[in-house]
């Protein structure tokens, strides 16, 4: 155990020695008055104003993964413990200030706790000898416990006498409720937004403010948002003098209307009112009211959170306007961070009400339609507001709407794109190009050469883009051949031999959730992802309105030419909201190895916003609570004397438990999300036969829990996972299940599995076509042969296997094999592929071995329905995650969004600092050497005491990731610390990282092989210059470092 003294460390560049300088005294003391024996144990004797804190911990088989800290309410780490001896009991005690509260946090870097798959670890905490908390070690990644009181209470009224108080947060779910700075260190990254002061002021010097605009316009209005504090009061607006504007604050003063003080307007004006309730982050919200020419006449922003604002204005009655509300963070004003909403009124009549879940922006027409006003102005203001319609403002490039507008607008500029249909009204200006005939919709098949559309990455493309890259034709057509693009790119979308593409009835209107809609609403993707379009098609096209089937009137908008993309996302509780947001528009499904999205996180909000399907999973031999913690363990089932290990502190799962969990999870799905359709079976039970299910176990639990729960919940079953090397194991499972089909209590039905789940970590295009391309593939042949050998010809096994599409529920390039015959043997490549290499492999930049890459293969193989990369982010140090811990996207993540795109930049972000850089300080016995493997200088830390210190600059305080290039023949540890000496045994801040082997004989002096690059997540950087020290305090050689690169944070 290591104790943080009241001393900071300053590096001295001589022989690895260090000097101590006094800083703020801290309360932790090793043993203030020596030690004493209590109940047969040697413990600390503490001062009268202190309490004795003790921890008894038994390590598991991998002690190097376990560490813990004690921190003050200010977040200062006082004590840190880490371990090296496996399956060993450790008992340690310390003296803490009796009038202070603390936070104890234990972390397992692999994420499986210290029990029970790899040893029987556990721990207990004591204050003054009294047990305040005991854990059986099944905490997953981390567990947090309050010690000696609560931080909030401690700060408010410090305790005079020590109290052994305890509150436990076993689930480690980040709080969404508080936006004040946390008083204790969080055990996981915050998923909500920063509670730090905004750069936008929250108050003004005046104690009172007016909601009315200044009657004198600004002499030099800004045409864009200012970074400087606004001089207008919060909740108000700013008038900008660009040309004479119609908006007036209150032309004839104010009056009381329905109990509210509102503007009294001139006879030729209408009163426009906005009632808005802000959410927890009001500074992100602003709105504008613009004329049809695009001139902003009103603008408002807010500073007071969770506050109702009522404002009214006078606008010209013979003009139409566009109201646009924007949330700069992109999550609207409801519902994850407060319950914001707003309502628009014209002359006191409600025009539009929004519940605030509009994501980035929402646009509403006010006082009529711009095209109708420009054609024939009203003689007098309308007393009835126009029907609410969401629109897009004019843009300089094509919008991503999937369906063309069916109402012609009057433009003063000749169109460069010919119209698709003859207009019912006369054109005021001649067209600059001839109109095509209606043959576009008939037997003649052509593309509109002038048409462009927007891709999901923001780029534009024309019709020929579909045919540019042969392996991706099918994928691109599935993604984009719908709506307007299907009409304009009929030839490139492969629709030449099809019947005439149907059109919408432009006059048909229907009501959805109290709002009047037209057909184009179904396929409007201007404010959402295309997957929401598909969701609306499925939800509403088969509904009837006034006795008419919507699909019969909205034939084009309901035309399902597209299919949901195959791509999915795997996320655990530690994934950042910012990280998930990169992929919302690129995926159709998500899984977390649990039975429902984590309660109390952003996950459900995320899938609702993007129209993503959640797929639950029965991953291990237990079921989970909504927050992800264990709920119950399966009943014992003896297979030849082997019973799965389970925790007796939890109840035994009943069949009804399994049913209830899935039904409750399904019931929580919101109307905006894709309904739950599938449930997946167990995860990688073939890996460790001594701790996982045997095939016979799995058949029994399949019939006992999964099969009846899926049936009762109306869900389809995806099989337990297998891969090319576990075909015989999987066939044995099917064998046991098939033979139990007549079981009186739990009949097992292999035909209830509609999909097969596959895990394969290999990015070679040819491997995927060799193993998984349907009839004649190696998977089909091997599985059919195994089933015939076990069960004979009682069924047509080839038909059985071919009838089940594949879901690739985990994949990456990290454990790729080198076998040229694509055997699933132990010929793993060393070193394993780093992030740059994996990026290149899935974007077609490694053609000689990987061709176009595994993901392009999955898109092209028709028998593969879905796939997902493992994983978004995980606590285990590996180089194939899609994001860093803070949500910054990696090059692998960018490649996952743009598979097969060889223009993706796969280089490591940031500036590399090499070992021989003049700024790097090397402390003996570490040494700089010429590495024969890389032909570069590398620093070898040698043994016991050597260190290397790199200097980096960061713009803001916080935690940052770095990438490290190194060589190491064996798995070795390094201690790493920001702004501290990582080698001194008294420095408890240093974190130990385990570096993978880069291959046999992988050393600089006469060795072979190549470097590997891994990401490290480091804490407590300060704005400006920082040092990162690598140290070796062991008696073995450590990894040899070539360079490091700090990962810049993304906005």
TrEMBL record:
InterPro entries: Asl1_glyco_hydro_catalytic, GH. Coiled coil: none annotated. Residues 191-234, 368-391 are annotated as: Disordered. Residues 212-233 have a biased composition (Low complexity). Residues 195-209 have a biased composition (Polar residues). The keyword Signal applies. Residues 667-896 form the Asl1-like glycosyl hydrolase catalytic domain. Residues 1-23 form the signal peptide. The keyword Nucleotidyltransferase does not apply. SUPFAM superfamilies: (Trans)glycosidases. Gene3D superfamilies: Galactose-binding domain-like, Glycosidases. Keywords: Signal. This is Asl1-like glycosyl hydrolase catalytic domain-containing protein. It comes from Chaetoceros tenuissimus.
């Amino acid at each position: 155990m290591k104790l943080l003294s009241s001393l900071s460390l300053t590096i001295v560049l001589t022989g690895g020695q260090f000097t101590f300088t006094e800083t703020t005294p801290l309360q932790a003391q090793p043993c203030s008055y020596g030690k004493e024996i209590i109940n047969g144990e040697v413990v600390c004797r503490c001062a009268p104003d202190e309490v004795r804190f003790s921890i008894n911990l038994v390590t598991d088989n991998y002690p190097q993964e376990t560490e813990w800290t004690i921190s003050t309410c200010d977040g200062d780490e006082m004590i840190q413990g880490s371990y090296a001896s496996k399956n060993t009991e450790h008992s340690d005690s310390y003296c803490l200030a009796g009038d202070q509260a603390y936070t104890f946090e234990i972390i397992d870097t692999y994420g499986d706790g210290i029990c029970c798959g790899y040893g029987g670890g556990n721990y207990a905490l004591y204050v003054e000898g009294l047990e305040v908390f005991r854990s059986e070690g099944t905490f997953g990644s981390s567990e947090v416990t309050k010690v000696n009181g609560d931080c909030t209470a401690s700060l408010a009224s410090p305790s005079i006498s020590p109290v052994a108080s305890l509150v436990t947060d076993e689930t480690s779910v980040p709080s969404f409720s508080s936006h004040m700075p946390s008083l204790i260190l969080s055990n996981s990254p915050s998923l909500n937004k920063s509670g730090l002061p905004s750069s936008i002021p929250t108050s003004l010097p005046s104690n009172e403010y007016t909601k009315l605009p200044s009657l004198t316009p600004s002499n030099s209005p800004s045409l864009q948002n200012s970074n400087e504090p606004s001089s207008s009061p919060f909740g108000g607006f700013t008038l900008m003098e660009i040309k004479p504007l119609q908006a007036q604050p209150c032309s004839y003063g104010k009056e009381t209307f329905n109990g509210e003080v509102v503007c009294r307007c001139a006879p030729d004006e209408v009163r426009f009112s906005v009632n808005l309730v802000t959410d927890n982050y009001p500074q992100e919200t602003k709105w504008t009211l613009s004329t049809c020419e695009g001139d902003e006449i009103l603008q408002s922003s807010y500073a007071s959170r969770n506050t109702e604002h009522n404002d009214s204005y006078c606008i010209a009655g013979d003009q139409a306007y566009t109201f646009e509300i924007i949330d700069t963070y992109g999550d609207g004003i409801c519902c994850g961070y407060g319950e914001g909403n707003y309502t628009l009124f014209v002359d006191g009549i409600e025009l539009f009400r929004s519940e605030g879940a509009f994501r980035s922006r929402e646009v509403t027409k006010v006082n009529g339609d711009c095209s109708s006003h420009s054609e024939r102005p009203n003689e007098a203001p309308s007393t009835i507001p126009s029907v609410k319609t969401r629109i897009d403002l004019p843009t300089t490039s094509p919008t991503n709407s999937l369906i063309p507008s069916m109402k012609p607008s009057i433009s003063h500029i000749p169109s460069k794109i010919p119209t698709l249909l003859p207009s019912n009204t006369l054109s005021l200006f001649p067209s600059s190009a001839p109109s095509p005939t209606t043959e576009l919709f008939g037997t003649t098949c052509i593309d509109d050469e002038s048409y462009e559309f927007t891709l999901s990455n923001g780029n534009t493309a024309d019709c020929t883009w579909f045919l540019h890259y042969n392996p991706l034709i099918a994928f691109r057509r599935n993604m984009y051949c719908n709506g307007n693009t299907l009409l304009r790119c009929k030839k490139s979308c492969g629709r030449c031999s099809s019947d005439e593409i149907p059109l919408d009835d432009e006059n048909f209107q229907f009501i959805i959730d109290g709002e009047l809609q037209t057909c184009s609403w179904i396929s409007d993707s201007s404010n959402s992802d295309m997957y929401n379009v598909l969701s609306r098609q499925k939800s509403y096209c088969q509904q009837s309105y006034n006795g008419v089937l919507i699909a019969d009137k909205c034939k084009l908008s309901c035309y399902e030419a597209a299919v949901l993309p195959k791509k999915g996302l795997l996320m655990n509780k530690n994934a950042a909201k910012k990280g998930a947001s990169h992929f919302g528009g690129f995926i159709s499904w998500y899984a977390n190895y649990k039975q429902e999205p984590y309660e109390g996180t952003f996950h459900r909000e995320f899938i609702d916003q993007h129209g993503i399907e959640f797929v639950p999973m029965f991953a291990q031999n237990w079921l989970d609570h909504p927050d992800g913690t264990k709920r119950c363990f399966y009943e014992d089932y003896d297979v030849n004397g082997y019973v799965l290990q389970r925790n007796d502190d939890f109840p035994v799962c009943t069949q009804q438990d399994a049913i209830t969990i899935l039904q409750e999870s399904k019931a929580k799905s919101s109307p905006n999300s894709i309904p739950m359709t599938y449930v997946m079976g167990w995860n990688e039970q073939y890996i460790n036969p001594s701790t996982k299910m045997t095939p016979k176990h799995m058949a029994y639990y399949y019939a006992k829990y999964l099969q009846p729960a899926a049936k009762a919940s109306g869900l389809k079953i995806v099989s337990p996972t297998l891969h090319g090397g576990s075909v015989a194991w999987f066939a044995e499972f099917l064998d046991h299940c098939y033979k139990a089909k007549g079981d009186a209590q739990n009949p097992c039905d292999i035909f209830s599995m509609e999909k097969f789940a596959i895990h394969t970590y290999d990015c070679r295009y040819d491997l995927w076509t060799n193993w998984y391309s349907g009839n004649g593939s190696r998977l089909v042949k091997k599985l059919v042969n195994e089933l015939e050998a076990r069960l004979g010809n009682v069924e047509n096994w080839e038909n059985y296997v071919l009838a089940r599409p594949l879901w690739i529920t985990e994949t990456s390039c990290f454990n790729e094999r080198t076998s040229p015959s694509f055997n699933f043997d132990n010929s793993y490549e060393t070193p394993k592929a780093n992030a740059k290499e994996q990026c290149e492999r899935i974007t077609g930049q490694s053609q000689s071995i990987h061709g176009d890459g595994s993901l392009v293969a999955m898109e092209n193989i028709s028998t593969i329905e879905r796939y997902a990369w493992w994983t978004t982010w995980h606590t285990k140090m590996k180089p194939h995650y899609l994001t860093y811990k803070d949500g910054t996207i990696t090059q692998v993540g960018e490649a996952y969004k743009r598979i097969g795109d060889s223009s993706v930049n796969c280089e490591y972000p940031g500036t590399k600092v090499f070992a021989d850089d003049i700024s790097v300080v090397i402390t003996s016995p570490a040494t700089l050497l010429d590495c024969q493997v890389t032909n570069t200088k590398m620093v070898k830390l040698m043994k016991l005491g050597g260190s290397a210190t790199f200097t980096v600059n960061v713009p803001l305080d916080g935690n940052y990731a770095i990438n490290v290039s190194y060589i190491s023949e064996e798995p070795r540890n390094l201690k790493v610390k920001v702004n501290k000496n990582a080698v001194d045994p008294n420095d408890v801040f240093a974190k130990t990282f385990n570096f993978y082997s880069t291959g046999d004989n992988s050393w600089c002096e006469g060795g072979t092989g190549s470097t590997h690059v891994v990401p490290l997540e480091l804490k407590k950087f300060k704005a400006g210059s920082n040092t990162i020290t690598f140290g070796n305090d062991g008696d073995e050689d450590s990894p040899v470092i070539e360079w490091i690169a700090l990962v810049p944070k993304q906005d």
